[in-house]
User: Which sequence fits this backbone?
């Protein structure tokens, strides 16, 4: 099963993200605690990376502790990231047009960013990551947990009163599998190869 991410034209507007809160998906606090638990796999991977690192699309700075530079195009998200990680550098820019020299970073990565880029520009964003770094990675939620697959299954539920319980059901079924599941690592080069064919 593939996870489909609905494209919202508002995603292209920095003002849309300026109006969002760190817990922006409308999910219960419990669900975000579970997300943090699954992010631990990713944090371990990031902590082992060496060299100058770029978090492209850093948002409110969830993973900036593992990087040298965070980039986002939302003023408010960058302000939140700066408040938590004062020792890091932040630049307001688009992932599609990064203001860095070629191969200026050892590693560049995006986490839950690609789905917020217009579908016709995703390839451009990945090529830009490839341009500014020697190694680049793209991570989506399904790389760390199976909850997106479970939520995808429940997208067909038309009985709205059940929607409030769906995140809890997803976590209930995902928890035992996620505990033994490894982090899926997608290099940007692999993703670009798939897009180019």
Assistant:
């Amino acid at each position: 099963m593939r996870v489909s991410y609905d494209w919202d034209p508002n995603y292209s507007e920095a003002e849309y993200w300026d109006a969002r809160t760190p817990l922006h998906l409308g999910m219960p606090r419990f669900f975000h605690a579970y997300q943090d638990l699954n992010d631990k796999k990713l944090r371990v991977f990031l902590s082992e990376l060496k060299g100058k690192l770029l978090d492209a699309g850093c948002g409110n700075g969830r993973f900036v502790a593992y990087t040298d530079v965070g980039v986002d195009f939302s003023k408010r998200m960058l302000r939140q990231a700066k408040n938590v990680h004062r020792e890091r550098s932040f630049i307001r820019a688009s992932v599609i047009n990064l203001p860095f020299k070629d191969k200026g970073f050892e590693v560049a990565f995006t986490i839950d960013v690609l789905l917020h880029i217009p579908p016709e520009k995703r390839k451009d964003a990945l090529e830009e990551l490839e341009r500014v770094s020697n190694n680049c990675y793209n991570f989506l939620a399904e790389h760390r947990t199976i909850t997106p697959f479970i939520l995808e299954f429940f997208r067909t539920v038309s009985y709205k009163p059940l929607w409030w319980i769906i995140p809890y059901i997803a976590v209930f079924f995902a928890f035992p599998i996620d505990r033994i599941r490894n982090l899926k690592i997608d290099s940007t080069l692999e993703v670009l190869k798939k897009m180019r064919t």
Summary: The beta strands are 53-56, 69-72, 89-92, 105-111, 133-139, 186-187. The CA atoms of residues 162 and 180 lie 29 Å apart. Residues 29-47 form the longest helix (19 residues).
